[in-house]
């Protein structure tokens, strides 16, 4: 994934979070991912171990205080609903937006969405996050606070997630389940020819799949100025401005050779919460766009911070599906 300073993703995903097993760092590589992501099975609320989960204090929606574990950690997954929500149940494949904090059994914190000041969104129950999350959260209701104690085989196993998570670590999470997020846009294609200066981006919307991006023939350099175009127009009430955070899927390619730089659809199936100011060109290129839209943005090298211009010397073209504007 493209990574820009100040990213907002957790350590839970198998492939792209710090909880996640692999944390790919590309354009938003300049975005940071959470530590959660990995598979599923069913689990009881308490497991069969006599070990008790650490005590948790604090109100739902605010970062909790979690005591360190005492004695030997449990050998089986434990999931305890600390506050029962009244929202819809989470099903396998749902994209769930949540705030969470994770720490080791000894009380050392390794990840917190509250510190990033944005919830994390991840697909649950399909192997995209660690087993402890997949197994504990399917069936829980939105609005709930859930404590998860994940033994090594439900987390990062023998290898861990260095340097913050040693091998064979038991992990403790408190998760506030905020909502089930939309996973695809619902706008309508714009009835005008697409700008020939930009790549031709498909207006077909397929769940779980990025649109095709066809680079202009004979064009191997990005335009000198930032150019953007809405190819699918949504009917959301709130428009993107410079201070917006959006829930989005996006794909990114370099102009020279059309090298694939990023594709959120391929990284776990869930959209990402991204402040538009965080990715070069987005605040300008997405300004005025509404939820449900697909916007193509060509970002020249000059829009990137000096220390990143060599990395993106060919310029970058983004196709961004805006699911929500916050």
Automatic annotation (TrEMBL):
<dbReference type="Pfam" id="PF00254">
    <property type="entry name" value="FKBP_C"/>
</dbReference>
<dbReference type="GO" id="GO:0003755">
    <property type="term" value="F:peptidyl-prolyl cis-trans isomerase activity"/>
</dbReference>
<keyword id="KW-0697">Rotamase</keyword>
<dbReference type="InterPro" id="IPR044609">
    <property type="entry name" value="FKBP2/11"/>
</dbReference>
<feature type="region of interest" description="Disordered">
    <location>
        <begin position="1"/>
        <end position="20"/>
    </location>
</feature>
<keyword id="KW-0413">Isomerase</keyword>
<protein>
    <recommendedName>
        <fullName>peptidylprolyl isomerase</fullName>
        <ecNumber>5.2.1.8</ecNumber>
    </recommendedName>
</protein>
<dbReference type="InterPro" id="IPR001179">
    <property type="entry name" value="PPIase_FKBP_dom"/>
</dbReference>
<feature type="compositionally biased region" description="Basic residues">
    <location>
        <begin position="11"/>
        <end position="20"/>
    </location>
</feature>
<feature type="region of interest" description="Disordered">
    <location>
        <begin position="185"/>
        <end position="221"/>
    </location>
</feature>
<feature type="region of interest" description="Disordered">
    <location>
        <begin position="43"/>
        <end position="74"/>
    </location>
</feature>
<dbReference type="InterPro" id="IPR046357">
    <property type="entry name" value="PPIase_dom_sf"/>
</dbReference>
């Amino acid at each position: 994934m493209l990574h820009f300073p100040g990213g907002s993703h957790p350590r839970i995903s198998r492939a792209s979070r710090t909880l996640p097993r692999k944390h790919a760092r590309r354009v938003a590589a300049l975005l940071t991912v959470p530590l959660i992501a990995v598979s599923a099975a069913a689990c009881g609320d308490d497991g069969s171990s006599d070990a008790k989960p650490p005590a948790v204090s604090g109100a739902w929606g605010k970062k909790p205080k979690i005591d360190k574990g005492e004695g030997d950690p449990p050998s089986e997954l434990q999931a305890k609903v600390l506050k029962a929500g009244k929202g819809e149940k989470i099903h396998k494949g749902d994209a769930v937006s949540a705030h969470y904090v994770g720490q080791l059994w000894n009380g050392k914190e390794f990840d917190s969405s509250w510190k990033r000041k944005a919830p994390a969104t991840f697909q649950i129950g399909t192997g995209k996050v660690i087993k402890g999350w997949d197994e504990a959260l399917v069936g829980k209701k939105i609005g709930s606070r859930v404590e998860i104690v994940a033994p090594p085989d439900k987390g990062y196993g023998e290898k861990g997630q260095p340097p913050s998570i040693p091998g064979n670590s038991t992990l403790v999470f408190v998760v506030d389940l905020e909502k089930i997020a939309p996973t695809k846009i619902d706008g309508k294609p714009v009835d005008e020819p697409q700008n020939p200066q930009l790549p031709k981006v498909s207006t077909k919307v397929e769940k779980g799949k990025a649109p095709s991006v066809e680079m202009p023939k004979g064009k191997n350099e990005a335009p000198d100025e930032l150019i953007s175009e809405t190819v699918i127009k949504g009917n959301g009430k709130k428009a993107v401005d410079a201070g917006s955070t959006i829930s989005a899927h996006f794909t990114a390619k370099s102009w020279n050779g059309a090298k694939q730089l990023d594709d959120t659809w391929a990284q776990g199936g869930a959209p990402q919460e991204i402040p538009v100011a965080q990715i070069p060109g987005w605040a300008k290129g997405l300004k005025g766009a509404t939820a449900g839209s697909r916007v193509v943005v060509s970002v020249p090298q000059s829009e990137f911070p000096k220390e990143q211009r060599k990395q993106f010397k060919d310029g970058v073209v983004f196709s961004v599906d805006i699911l929500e504007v916050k």
